[in-house]
Amino acid sequence: MTTVAALPSALASWDDIVQRLHGDAPALFLDYDGTLTPIVEHPEDAVLTAAIREAVRAVAAVCPVSIVSGRDRTVVEALVGLSGLGYIGSHGFDICGPPESPLRHEVGVEYLDALNAAESTLHERLARIAGATVERKRFGIAAHYRQALSRRAEVETVVRAVHAMHPALHVALGKAVFELRPAIDWDKGRAIRWLLDRWSVAPRLPLYIGDDLTDETAFEALSADGIGIVVADDNRSTAAQFTLRDPRDVQAFLDRLVATVRSTLV
Ligand SMILES: [Mg+2]
What we know:
- By secondary structure, this protein is an alpha/beta fold.
- Helices cover 33% and strands 22% of the residues.
- It starts with a strand and ends with a helix.
């Protein structure tokens, strides 16, 4: 682990990264919110600009691309709106590999009954807290309080009470959100590893770009045989090897990757 400020910029380290690719396009993994889109007040406003969608489409034409998100897989797939990509949703619990490796895996199907029951109780109890909202994903239920920051403690009390009724679930904390998920030791990093273990990407190098704390599990999973790029402008600790400041930088990185693969790599 190091800190963001101690890491080189992925754009400034371009030659180093290209050298590590050993003449092949990478197997690319991209987080969605905060990586391809700016972080916004309302999650439904986190849409791709035409330019970054075009950048993702272009990069998917030269290497396998998977979008990895905490959102429901079908939701992030609709937001990206591109076919020919892999989509991994619900923080890695719902895996659909890219066309090059169309593997399908759902982790925690046996927890769906508990999730369904917890979802209706949460809806009922959080309805009394103005601004608190419930978002159901296939393998998680998010209780958002971004619009009810002053009532965080009340939201937490409700979530903890619902959790007590369903001990097969566990409570994960995020940015202005509590999330109930199956109590399984699983995350984005394990999802990537699961995919890579069954899909021989070699000689491709796995390359992951993300901004969330949850993306750290992926950076750790790839620390020995891949490249992790953290999108951040603060100085938190990270297991990534390079940084990009914001989604604009990510777009520049993708554009440069496409140009390099087309001109010099296979
Ligand atoms: Mg993110």
